[in-house]
């Protein structure tokens, strides 16, 4: 006998384990990031800046899928810690440039241990981690493309 509610049973939802996993993994980052005086979202922004060195708020928002209303207070906080500077563009005053400071750049040496610490609690092989990352990025791409 068919159960018409089977499609909405919690056990059949991909979104639920994805949500739980994201929540728990992010929570596990907290003690490691406390040592760096960063929240998880600040850590993501800093990782982006360690790669880019400088960017605009718009570029960062597009790369990290964060809107300006989320980024603005976060960037102000990172600036108050001395990790970044925020300056208006000389050519377009609507554009805000973000630049990593020496202090912010030096923080990446302390952050090197975070991925290793997280590997211990996640418990995937490097191959499994790469495969999972690819699948999650595929989901993100598909979701983004379905909104267009």
Automatic annotation (TrEMBL):
Keywords from the UniProt entry: Cytoplasm, DNA-binding, Transcription, Transcription regulation
Positions of the HTH marR-type domain: 11-141
Chief location: cytoplasm
Subcellular location: Cytoplasm
InterPro entries associated with the record: HTH_MarR-typ (IPR000835), MarR/SlyA-like (IPR039422), Transc_reg_Sar_Rot_HTH (IPR055166), WH-like_DNA-bd_sf (IPR036388), WH_DNA-bd_sf (IPR036390)
Keyword Transcription listed: yes
GO CC terms, sorted: cytoplasm
PROSITE patterns assigned to the protein according to its UniProt record, in alphabetical order: HTH_MARR_2 (PS50995)
Gene Ontology BP annotations: response to stress
SUPFAM superfamilies named among the record's database cross-references: Winged helix' DNA-binding domain
Molecular function GO terms recorded: DNA binding; DNA-binding transcription factor activity
Record's protein name: Putative HTH-type transcriptional regulator SarZ
């Amino acid at each position: 006998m068919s159960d018409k509610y089977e499609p909405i049973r919690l056990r059949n939802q991909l979104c639920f384990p994805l949500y739980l996993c994201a929540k728990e993994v992010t929570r596990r980052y907290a003690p490691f990031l406390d040592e760096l005086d960063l929240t998880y979202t600040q850590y993501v922004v800093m990782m982006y800046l360690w790669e880019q060195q400088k960017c605009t708020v718009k570029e960062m928002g597009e790369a990290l899928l964060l809107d300006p209303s989320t980024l603005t207070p976060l960037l102000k906080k990172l600036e108050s810690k001395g990790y970044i500077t925020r300056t208006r563009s000389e050519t377009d005053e609507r554009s805000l440039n973000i630049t990593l400071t020496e202090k912010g750049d030096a923080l990446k040496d302390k952050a090197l241990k975070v991925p290793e610490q997280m590997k211990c609690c996640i418990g995937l092989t490097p191959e499994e981690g790469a495969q999972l990352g690819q699948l999650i990025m595929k989901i993100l791409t598909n979701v983004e493309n379905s909104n267009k």
